[in-house]
Specification:
Length: about 475
Amino acid sequence: MADSSKASVAQFDAVVIGAGVSGLHFIHLARQRGWTVQCYEAGSGVGGTWYWNRYPGCRVDIESLEYSYSFSEELHRDWEWTERFAAQPELERYLNHVADRFSLRPHIRLDTRVTAAHFDEASSRWTVRTDAGDVVSARFLISATGFHSTPVLPEFEGLDLFRGLKLQTALWPQERPELAGKRVGVIGTGASGVQVIQTLAPQVARLTVFQRTAAYSVPQQNCAMDPQYQASIKSRFSEMRRALSQSFAGTVIVHSRFDTPATRSALAVSEDERRREFEDRWASGGLSFYNAFSDLLVDEKANATLDEFLKEKLRSRVRKPGVAEKLTPRGYPVLTRRLANDNGYAETFDRDNVELVDVTAEPIRHFTANGLVVGEREIELDVIIFATGFDMGTGALARIDIRGRSGRSLEADLAQGGWPHLGMMATGYPNLFVMNGVGAPFYNPMVLCEQQGQWILRCIDQMQQRGA
Ligand code: FAD
């Protein structure tokens, strides 16, 4: 299918932007089709999220056995996970193994950021440019630039004055900084904040946590992988993959059974029965609360039953006066933000070396040479860690100068709304496909990228049959 008529510019069937979970999978699909494919990755290694986010405690919230590819049963069988919920280093190793095992690496150019992609109507091809000076042409452009790949650092007055170490969870240095014995501050208590806080608290001299929005957190019940458990789940590969493909969020393991989509309303069962269901999921760990009842996300009263259960659990876990109150989530319904992975998070705040600062009551005013000022007091710090999140969804895509038909700008179109078709294709941008983007289901990305990859190929087949 490669077009060799334009000798001066390298011609590819597909250019893939990003070598995370989604990009790696699409390179594999393209190779299986016999396409010429070039992937550009801004980072110095493959893995996307699992390359960049090296902060202490970073780990997946979906069981490792589910957060893995299914396109090769041999891969699934051969790869031995060491923990029920893998930590970042193991996930990075897994994705590097995939890149090697399926010979993806020769198609990936690391340390190279795509800066522009313009659609040429005469040739119906995309001209792609990078910050390394590459100019290539592709028939299909696949954006696998990630939902959480553009970290955000809010502006803080006086930040430049601070003489201590500044770290950002999403840009954690390869050389892990020594934090033992230091006075550390963490700003942000979202998913990354929770993980870094509960991991660092026992290691550092003093930890001060600056919280704006409290997270609902549920115990992950992480543990070393039990070999029998791993073998048992692997032996039911087809059954699990079928269950995953029909599931609500791409995660189905509860204890060692596979969940089916919930059909019962939380309000249609007795209080005892509801509690039993919640306790069962609390004991199993992970994200399975999403599927406890069918209406937790669509009925306020049903949602309130889980809210009440989790708040009661929180109160029973924290003893320091006033802390459970501060840790209590407010202002949004449970499950509408990702549940945080709790491996002793709530109990962390009972430690003598940990202080929780509610910045809605004591706002961060400014940094100083020695720390920062909240409310009326200065808190001295050696290290400040920003767990302040991402320009989510379209952040990475909008930073590329993408021009479709008649030179229209994707950035401008994105600013006016979401993706019209399944989050994957937009009018005016022919042969551009977006994986794991805005408007796609919020789903286990390992399952999603395989479904999206197959969908893209079927769509291309259909277009070719119709001469579209
Ligand atoms: P990414 O992994 O984000 O990869 C995108 C890649 O594109 C990046 O490497 C980036 O450098 C590259 N890129 C972007 N723009 C350009 C450009 N212009 N040129 C070249 N390269 C570019 N999901 C879960 O389901 N469970 C979890 O537990 C979970 N934990 C997470 C923890 C953290 C800290 C973060 C940040 C995210 C987490 N996620 C989790 C979401 C996670 O992003 C997805 O699970 C998955 O890894 C996304 O894969 P991806 O390939 O779609 O995108």
